[in-house]
UniProtKB/TrEMBL annotation:
The lineage of its organism: Bacteria, Bacillati, Bacillota, Bacilli, Bacillales. GO terms for molecular function: DNA binding; structural constituent of chromatin. InterPro entries: Hist_DNA-bd (IPR000119), IHF-like_DNA-bd_dom_sf (IPR010992). GO terms for cellular component: cytosol. Belongs to the bacterial histone-like protein family. Keywords: DNA condensation, DNA-binding. Pfam families: Bac_DNA_binding (PF00216). Signal peptide: none annotated. This is HU family DNA-binding protein. GO terms for biological process: chromosome condensation.
Length: 94
């Protein structure tokens, strides 16, 4: 499902306009961006949490030159699903 499809489903369920739903989704996403940039996590009980995790430094090989390059460690965004979320998705998949 892409963003437009999500907005349409939201419109069907909450009877808000597509632009009102888009504002809500964009605001939600921007708040998550800002929190992660500030080193915070965003926890939604039962759903999961948005966090940053450290990706360790590693060596990679550049295919065109066969040269190895060291990539430094860095923080990357991640989503950790909550138990309720995992259980609901498991039931759907089974």
């Amino acid at each position: 499902m892409n963003k437009n499809e999500l907005l349409e489903k939201m419109k069907e369920r909450n009877r808000l306009s597509k632009s009102e739903n888009q504002l809500a989704v964009d605001t939600f996403i921007n708040i998550i961006y800002e929190a992660l940039q500030n080193g915070e996590k965003v926890s939604l009980k039962g759903f999961g949490q948005f966090v940053t995790k450290e990706r360790k430094s590693r060596n990679i090989r550049i295919p065109s030159s066969e040269k190895e390059v060291r990539v430094p460690a860095k923080e990357i965004p991640a989503f950790e699903p909550g138990e309720e979320f995992k259980n609901k998705v498991e039931r759907i998949i089974e």
